[in-house]
Amino acid sequence: MQQELIAALIVSVVAFFVVYAITPFLIRELGKRKLAVPDVNRIGGAMIPRPGGPAIIAGILISEAVLFLVFPSDTRNLKIIALMITTFLAFIVGLIDDRKVLGGWFKPLALAVSAIPIVLIGIYDPTGVYDPNLTFPIFGPVKIPALYIGIIILMIAITGNTINSIDAMNGIASGFMTIASFSLTIALLIMKNYDVALISLPLGFASLAFYKYHQFPSRIFPGDSGVLALGAMYGVIAIIGRAEVVAATALLPAIVNSFLFLSSVKKIVEHRQIKNPTTHTDDHKIIATKEKDAPITLVRLLVAGKPLSEKEIGFTIFKLAIFSGILAIITAFLMEIRI
Amino acid sequence: MYVFIIMMWLLILAGGGILVVVVSKISISGYGNEIDFLIASLIKAVIAILLVIAWIIVLSKLKNKIFQKQIES
Fold this sequence. Notes:
A: two-stranded antiparallel ribbon; B: 3 helices; 0% strand
């Protein structure tokens, strides 16, 4: 147990400080190469460097590699390999999308392909990576070995795109992921899944370190490479931690956002290709657009009643994330109860 | 928004209950072990998909009810 605590401390510190140290260099380098996009909500539309994904993936991969090499464990190693490969593939998908705006279907399909290594490693060692039973709180597990492969593929595509869709304003994606991933880590501890709780720590700490630069007013945007890597890693943790329902619960505000978006647009489309669901007041607060054909999103609903500043919107979403995180922790307790 | 999130959470729990209590108990016999397993899996998959569709329809109705004012504004 003492060794696990030391490992937890070291991977957390490595994940945090790698992202914290690399991001300022990345901001300078992206600035020099003029890889920047306008911040549409900022007065004057400042150009913000993008993508911050390379710093995030470096923090995740280095800390997971430390866990793999310095603290090897038969029950953890295959899970770490599956997580590193899938997260890296999702990062590459995002990097391609950062360079070139591709169709709405590209990301879900490419993320689904990113999930294949988990399935293949699961075939190589059927007990080493995931358990093909979906476990529900109170009611227990349902055995669905054939269907579970589909769930793995869907999970990575959904978590990646869901986090991508909430990356609408300064700091929201990284701040939301910090809250959701720490909630998931606590839930994994409650479910006595200590190995995966340990593996999940770099996600929360890498997100937290990146939030330092991404919070309002942003100095860097994560880009698709950053948010898809974070979202895919979250999905992998849900699968290897047998915590699919808990993970989905912690992600509910982001799922609400995707649900509202899809139910109003009624097709899968790249978010950069649709009308902005919000506009600005004279004092540069954000308010819902009057355009009827603009999509309904979480942010649009939050500012439908009264205009809010970007910072206020961020904190409102974080409160929703904390609320869902508490529900996820309650769900983890319910996992131990059977009727 | 908090009410909508609670509703989504309860729907997830209820959906899980239906899957475990009803769907997972489905078994077919009389066509040989492998075919029985395949047919039962197919039936379970179809019911699971129908449950997801039902979940989306219920959520859609709830969304319209809870957010009607905001959506219209």
